[in-house]
Design brief:
The protein has 332 residues and is an alpha/beta fold. It contains 14 helices and eleven strands. Strand 1, helix 2 and strand 2 form a beta-alpha-beta unit. Bound molecules: (2S)-2-hydroxybutanedioic acid. The site of (2S)-2-hydroxybutanedioic acid has 9 residues, from loops.
């Protein structure tokens, strides 16, 4: 009799344990390097909200902003080994993975604005690029916009000649390296999380960023001049570990894909305005003087910098550059 009761008790415990295990949510760690109050930061929070609501709590999204969990290079490695499941690195950060083609987005003056950009990111060329990640064990789910970059330094940067000899922080992209060299500057690759301090202590003289990053990382407080040049684009691809993603039950995965599609619309609807607001806040702070290039001054920059398109064609692929030109409908 005693054994029977014990057996019943044990089976009840096993059942409870099984039920608890079944109720355990699928945890997706989503790591990124920027502040919460940025286009990427806000979109990550929105995706979390939609994903958790739509899966009725079967999925839990843990968002780690501001390089809290991993810095640029580490986060890519962490995704591949499965320590995080979702990232949204900037497109300039995919070459070290071995997918150099993403650097096409870094070409100076390739996009005249968001409309041009979307012809690529929302079209077949963008899709083809995302597909290239698969052999690396990564799935590309979407492109998220940030914005067009400004240059900053402690001296006014009005003409290409003003860059001569300046140490400029760049992301890990050979195109950005070439861009700075064409300007006569000395490019220095550095993790995003280290830029503020490097600017403050003079390890580098200047940098480039969309206003949302310049503002939220307080870089403008340690840069006397900001030039609104809009010379290049910075945006993101949302990526997941392929093995992990494909193990998620289809029904839940479909809900997550829907949440991602809506979060993408959201991201791309706030990016432009957020950057405009942050640029206005930098200006209002009075901490750095703002130089807005006239059309003519901007053309001088463009004439010098488009050289990078041909100089770097072998690295990115001349065909891909042509495909992007065609998608935009411009012969450059
Ligand atoms: C940078 O390193 O400057 C950016 O890629 C940071 C980001 O994610 O916007």
């Amino acid at each position: 009799m005693k054994t029977k009761v014990l057996l019943l008790l044990v089976s009840a415990m096993v059942l409870v344990a099984a039920a608890t295990a079944m109720a355990e949510p699928i945890v997706i760690k989503f790591s990124h390097v920027v502040a919460v109050d940025t286009p990427k930061g806000q979109a990550a929070e929105y995706f979390k909200k939609l994903a958790e609501e739509r899966t009725n709590g079967a999925v839990k999204i843990e968002v780690y902003p501001n390089s809290q969990l991993y810095k640029d290079k580490e986060e890519m490695e962490a995704l591949q080994i499965g320590s995080v499941q979702m990232l949204a690195p900037s497109l300039a950060k995919f070459a070290p993975l071995g997918v150099k083609e993403f650097e096409v987005f870094d070409l100076p003056f390739i996009f005249d604005g968001y409309d041009d950009l979307h012809k690529v990111t929302l079209g077949p060329v963008g899709k083809k690029l995302l597909n290239k990640l698969e052999v690396k064990g990564i799935l590309g789910l979407a492109y998220w916009d940030n914005g067009f970059k400004v240059m900053s330094a402690n001296k006014p940067l009005k003409t290409p000649a003003d860059f001569k000899g300046l140490k400029m922080r760049i992301q890990s992209s050979k195109i950005l390296d070439a861009q700075m060299r064409v300007l006569g500057a000395i490019p220095q690759v550095m993790a995003f999380s280290e830029v503020y301090q490097a600017l403050q202590t003079g390890v580098v003289d200047g940098t480039e960023n969309p206003p949302s990053n310049l503002y939220t990382q307080k870089m403008f407080e340690v840069q006397k001049y900001v030039t609104v040049s809009n010379h290049g684009f910075l945006g993101y691809a949302v990526i997941v570990n392929k093995k992990f993603w494909e193990k998620i039950p289809v029904e839940i995965r479909t809900q997550l894909e829907g949440a991602m599609a809506d979060a993408t619309v959201f991201a791309n609807s706030i990016a432009k305005q957020k950057n405009q607001e942050d640029l206005a806040s930098v200006k209002a702070s009075g901490k750095s003087e703002m130089i807005v290039l006239s059309e003519q001054e901007r053309k001088v920059w463009k004439d010098v910098l488009v050289k990078v398109h041909t100089d770097m064609a072998d690295r990115i692929g001349a065909d891909l550059i042509q495909e992007v030109y065609q998608a935009i409908g411009v012969k450059k």
